[in-house]
């Protein structure tokens, strides 16, 4: 897969006018297949460590203890520890680093090379700042509800598009040199009630929250697998070495101490080799979280946001104690430390990794090394410029992500207009500068990033107005503008003189710890902010060529103005990062032909989505029941027969394309590649096993070996691994009996490399029937039957085609693309064995389907036909856990059900 990608990359870079030899030419992804080596090195390192040294690797040192989050300093062996930081949009809280586009825009490009290129650049910047572990990328939230505050940090509510994007981002960031942390595992789909303290401190007018637990996200096993876990399979396959578990509970159990999720599904079923780290405040227990499979704690402290528990940890000294008193077996601690160090070796961080050279959140050159304790005044920021030529990647992602939804009478591209009007606060700079509000927690001036921990500082922000003026000078265009959304009469007079009127609107969202204009992370509504709808109609009332540009974290409703004939063009620009204006101008003036496609549906009204955020808790322990099952976004619109305004996958170009020559070809089973990604690390989902990571466990010494050494002086509220001085060793309860947390005696789908075998190739011819070169995102949808959505995305291919020319595009279907999750057997089942043909559709969007064909059911499913699968007999009925039958009853004599499972070599 990566070989193919890198070849394509080289080809595309050749046409991209990137400076030769620049750093962002992504090399082939490292690491795949190197886990066994990484584990060998990790074992060698970890098995020589003492108990407190191993604990050091698992526990961060606390809020503000050190100037950037760190852990794992082991002076005895000269290990300087690991540094950690956010975010998906860049290195958080520093200077001389880039502000990338939101991951949303990466998805809007549907362009594998650009996704990988930007991820690589972000990874490289983290690395060059000395960050070993970066909290990015995001696929939880997936985007169940369009109002979800953090959706823009991820990609799309479609699991296939998200899976490709998430996997490529992991691979790209890893290749850039930092350990990409996939987050948040799992079902973290809204901000409201994600944490107790945070939400109880919010008092809305007339409402006082008093929750005792974070919400529990509850969904059936099949939905969990086919929607919310799907992208995680991609990331594991693409080399994800770290995962962050989420704030919410799942089925009533805190995600970070959910044995079924972490040990059972993530490490067992998926064969994840890396480590699991908590979010800031998502760890709710010491012993249970260790036993359930959590491996590292940030910030190390007990309480959400570190508010209550400064310097107090569930781990640190408590973990040392738990191992000493047998509450946690020492092999589990070995496993935690080994998984962390394996990730480090997997990325090759043991060679030439730069030292941490900045202080998160502090731009000063000099400051305290221990800011909370106000100790050790020294140089804390070397202001290393890590931006390289990444601005060009950002600009390209921005331009190629713009989705054109309307373009009547060739309103766009602009052709040397005599006079332009630029209207709306979102067009210009903020009075407070691009970094005027902490963590971008406000909506002032043009919007280029959402708010929260997924944000970063802008090194500069090219606002649309400056970029437009700069470009307009070339044509001698007169540019008038009004940035005050409320000055109606001035707006009227300016737009009535213009040949084209660009009106800018936005909507914002972010993380739940910040409130903006009454929006507590999640959006309160799906409309444009700051009277955007009225603004557009006012402009259109006096300008027959009104071009709307929207900067948003997700869909906005457009009904008040979309059919206004004076609204001649509409561009959705997402949250484009530092190059916002330049990317926009590229499309406005036709330097780049628009090629983005919607990664979600734009509905006509909020209710049409069928899912929403829970804004008022349904009790002290809120329950978020995903009763819609598989039917979110377009899956729901299709199922319920609701006409959207613009469907998933939609997006226009300055040229036109036609589709022909559909071919659907089976891949010769004997050519199926043999999976080389077999998990090499023993799966520890069963605590009954007693895996031996290290040959000798530390012999327990007397307490003084674990208490605070007299040789170091402690920094206040800093988390060390030591027991308090004068502690005595007490023997506590032995860890719970295996049955408490080992739910399954075996994991049929474990590793499941056969899922990745190629089984079908679908191809088609796309012709550029217009007058300009352009890129088309051809999309493949399947109708799988058996209770599955009407159609679901299972392939896409973005191709650049010259005017009047054709291109062959192909889509490779892997076995997983034809499989559904069978809960009773805990396995993926290939639908071809279940009877009924699979419908194949190729087109320009989820509703603009130009070609169709079929993939036949397998009459006699035997091994060989679908190489490496294991037939499974004897299922008299297959039902989901919630007892909804989803396949027809099978009896003897009917086709065997091909269960996709681990290849038997
Ligand atoms: C401890 O380190 C030594 C020297 O690096 C190495 O040879 C040995 O294998 C390590 N011990 C274990 C148990 O891995
Ligand atoms: C643990 O880390 C701290 C720094 O965070 C260091 O001072 C201490 O020596 C380390 N302990 C061990 C046992 O390596
Ligand atoms: C919140 O609820 C808990 C238990 O449900 C109760 O003990 C407590 O008094 C409540 N606090 C407030 C401020 O209502
Ligand atoms: C949650 O409960 C449902 C219904 O019992 C079950 O199907 C599903 O597997 C459970 N999921 C998890 C992650 O425990
Ligand atoms: C150990 O954890 C408990 C919470 O379970 C906490 O109250 C205590 O302060 C912790 N001890 C240390 C030394 O952090
Ligand atoms: C800045 O943004 C905040 C929050 O969105 C808003 O309340 C405030 O009015 C804005 N300030 C200006 C000058 O626009
Ligand atoms: C939607 O929310 C935004 C931001 O809070 C606000 O400006 C706007 O007026 C709201 N829209 C409606 C229709 O209430
Ligand atoms: C369209 O614009 C013209 C002015 O250019 C105006 O007379 C007309 O009323 C507008 N139509 C609408 C529907 O706003």
Automatic annotation (TrEMBL):
<keyword id="KW-0732">Signal</keyword>
<dbReference type="InterPro" id="IPR019800">
    <property type="entry name" value="Glyco_hydro_3_AS"/>
</dbReference>
<dbReference type="InterPro" id="IPR013783">
    <property type="entry name" value="Ig-like_fold"/>
</dbReference>
<comment type="pathway">
    <text>Glycan metabolism; cellulose degradation.</text>
</comment>
<keyword id="KW-0119">Carbohydrate metabolism</keyword>
<dbReference type="InterPro" id="IPR001764">
    <property type="entry name" value="Glyco_hydro_3_N"/>
</dbReference>
<keyword id="KW-0378">Hydrolase</keyword>
<dbReference type="GO" id="GO:0030245">
    <property type="term" value="P:cellulose catabolic process"/>
</dbReference>
<dbReference type="InterPro" id="IPR036881">
    <property type="entry name" value="Glyco_hydro_3_C_sf"/>
</dbReference>
<comment type="similarity">
    <text>Belongs to the glycosyl hydrolase 3 family.</text>
</comment>
<protein>
    <recommendedName>
        <fullName>beta-glucosidase</fullName>
        <ecNumber>3.2.1.21</ecNumber>
    </recommendedName>
</protein>
<dbReference type="InterPro" id="IPR002772">
    <property type="entry name" value="Glyco_hydro_3_C"/>
</dbReference>
<dbReference type="InterPro" id="IPR017853">
    <property type="entry name" value="GH"/>
</dbReference>
<feature type="domain" description="Fibronectin type III-like">
    <location>
        <begin position="776"/>
        <end position="846"/>
    </location>
</feature>
<keyword id="KW-0326">Glycosidase</keyword>
<dbReference type="InterPro" id="IPR026891">
    <property type="entry name" value="Fn3-like"/>
</dbReference>
<keyword id="KW-0624">Polysaccharide degradation</keyword>
<dbReference type="Pfam" id="PF14310">
    <property type="entry name" value="Fn3-like"/>
</dbReference>
<dbReference type="Pfam" id="PF00933">
    <property type="entry name" value="Glyco_hydro_3"/>
</dbReference>
<dbReference type="InterPro" id="IPR036962">
    <property type="entry name" value="Glyco_hydro_3_N_sf"/>
</dbReference>
<keyword id="KW-0325">Glycoprotein</keyword>
<dbReference type="Pfam" id="PF01915">
    <property type="entry name" value="Glyco_hydro_3_C"/>
</dbReference>
<dbReference type="GO" id="GO:0008422">
    <property type="term" value="F:beta-glucosidase activity"/>
</dbReference>
<dbReference type="InterPro" id="IPR050288">
    <property type="entry name" value="Cellulose_deg_GH3"/>
</dbReference>
<feature type="signal peptide">
    <location>
        <begin position="1"/>
        <end position="16"/>
    </location>
</feature>
């Amino acid at each position: 897969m990566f070989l193919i990608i890198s070849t394509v990359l080289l080809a595309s870079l050749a046409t991209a006018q990137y400076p030769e030899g620049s750093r962002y030419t992504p090399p082939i992804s490292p690491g795949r297949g190197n886990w066994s080596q990484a584990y060998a090195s990790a074992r060698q390192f970890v098995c020589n460590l003492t108990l407190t040294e191993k604990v050091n690797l698992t526990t961060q040192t606390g809020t503000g203890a050190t100037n950037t989050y760190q852990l794992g300093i082991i002076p005895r062996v000269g290990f300087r520890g690991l540094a950690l930081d956010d975010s998906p949009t860049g290195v958080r809280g520093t200077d001389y680093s880039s502000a990338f586009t939101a991951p949303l825009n990466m998805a809007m490009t549907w362009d594998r090379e650009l996704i990988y290129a930007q991820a690589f650049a972000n990874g490289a910047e983290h690395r060059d700042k000395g960050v070993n572990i970066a909290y990015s990328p995001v696929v939880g939230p997936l985007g169940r509800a369009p109002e979800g505050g953090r959706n823009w940090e991820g990609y799309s509510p479609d699991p296939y598009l998200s899976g490709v994007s998430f996997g490529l981002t992991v691979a790209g960031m890893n290749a850039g040199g930092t350990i990409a942390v996939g987050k948040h595992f799992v079902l973290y789909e809204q901000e409201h009630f994600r944490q107790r303290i945070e939400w109880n401190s919010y008092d809305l007018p007339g409402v006082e929250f008093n929750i005792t637990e974070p919400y529990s996200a509850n969904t059936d096993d099949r939905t969990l697998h086919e929607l919310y876990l799907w992208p995680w399979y991609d990331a594991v396959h693409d080399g994800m070495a770290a995962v962050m578990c989420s704030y919410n509970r799942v089925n009533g159990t805190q995600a970070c101490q959910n044995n079924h999720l972490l040990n059972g599904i993530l490490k067992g079923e998926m064969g994840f080799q890396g480590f699991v780290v908590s979010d800031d405040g998502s760890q709710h227990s010491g012993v249970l979280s260790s036993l359930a499979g959590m491996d590292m704690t940030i910030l190390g402290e007990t309480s959400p946001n570190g508010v209550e528990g400064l310097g107090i940890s569930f781990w640190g000294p408590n973990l040392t104690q738990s191992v000493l008193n047998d509450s946690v077996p020492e092999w589990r601690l070995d496993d935690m430390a080994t998984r962390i160090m394996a990730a480090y070796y997997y990325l090759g961080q043991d060679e030439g990794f730069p030292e941490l050279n900045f202080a998160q959140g502090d731009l000063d050159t000099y400051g305290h090394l221990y800011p909370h304790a106000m100790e050790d005044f020294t140089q804390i920021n070397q202001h290393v410029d890590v931006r390289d030529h990444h601005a060009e990647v950002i600009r390209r992602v921005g331009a190629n992500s713009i989705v054109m939804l309307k373009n009547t009478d060739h309103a766009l591209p602009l052709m040397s207009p005599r006079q332009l009007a630029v209207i709306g606060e979102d067009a210009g700079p903020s009075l407070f500068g691009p970094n005027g509000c902490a963590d971008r927690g406000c909506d002032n001036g043009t919007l280029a990033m959402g708010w929260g921990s997924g944000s970063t500082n802008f090194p500069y922000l090219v606002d649309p107005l400056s970029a437009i003026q700069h470009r307009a000078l070339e044509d001698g265009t007169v540019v008038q503008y009004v940035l005050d959304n409320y000055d109606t009469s001035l707006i009227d007079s300016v737009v009535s003189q213009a040949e084209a009127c660009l009106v800018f609107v936005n909507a914002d969202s972010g993380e739940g710890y910040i409130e903006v204009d009454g929006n507590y992370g999640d959006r309160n509504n799906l409309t444009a902010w700051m009277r955007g709808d009225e603004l557009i109609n006012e402009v259109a009332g006096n300008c027959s060529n009104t071009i709307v540009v929207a900067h948003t974290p997700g869909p906005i409703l457009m009904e008040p103005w979309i059919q206004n004939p004076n609204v001649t063009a509409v561009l959705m620009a997402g949250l484009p990062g530092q190059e916002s204006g330049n990317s926009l101008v590229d499309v406005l003036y036709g330097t780049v032909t628009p090629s983005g496609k919607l990664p979600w549906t734009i509905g006509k009204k909020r209710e049409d989505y069928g899912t929403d955020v829970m804004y008022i808790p349904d009790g002290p322990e809120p329950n978020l029941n995903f009763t819609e099952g598989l039917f979110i976004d377009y899956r729901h619109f299709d199922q319920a027969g609701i006409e959207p305004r613009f469907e998933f996958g939609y997006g226009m170009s300055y040229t036109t394309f036609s589709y022909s020559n559909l071919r659907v070809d089976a891949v010769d089973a004997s050519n199926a590649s043999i999976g080389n990604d077999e998990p090499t690390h023993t799966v520890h989902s069963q605590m009954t096993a007693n895996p031996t990571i290290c040959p000798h466990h530390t012999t327990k010494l007397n307490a003084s070996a674990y208490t605070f050494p007299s040789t170091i002086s402690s920094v206040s509220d800093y988390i060390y691994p030591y027991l308090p001085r004068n502690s005595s060793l007490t023997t506590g309860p032995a860890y719970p009996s295996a049955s408490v947390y080992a739910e399954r005696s075996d994991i049929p789908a474990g590793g499941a490399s056969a899922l990745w075998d190629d089984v079908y190739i679908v191809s088609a011819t796309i012709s550029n029937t217009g007058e300009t070169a352009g890129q088309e995102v051809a999309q493949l949808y399947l109708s799988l039957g058996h209770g599955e959505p009407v159609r679901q995305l299972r392939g896409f291919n973005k191709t650049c085609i010259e005017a009047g020319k054709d291109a062959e595009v192909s889509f490779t279907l892997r076995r997983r693309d034809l499989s559904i999750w069978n809960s009773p057997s805990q396995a993926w089942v290939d639908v071809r064995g279940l009877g009924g043909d699979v419908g194949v559709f190729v087109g320009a969007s989820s509703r603009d389907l130009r070609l169709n064909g079929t993939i036949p059911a397998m009459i006699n499913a035997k091994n060989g036909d679908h190489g490496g699968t294991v037939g499974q007999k004897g299922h008299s009925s297959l039902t989901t856990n919630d007892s909804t039958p989803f396949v027809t009853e099978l009896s003897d004599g009917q086709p065997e059900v091909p269960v996709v499972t681990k290849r038997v070599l």
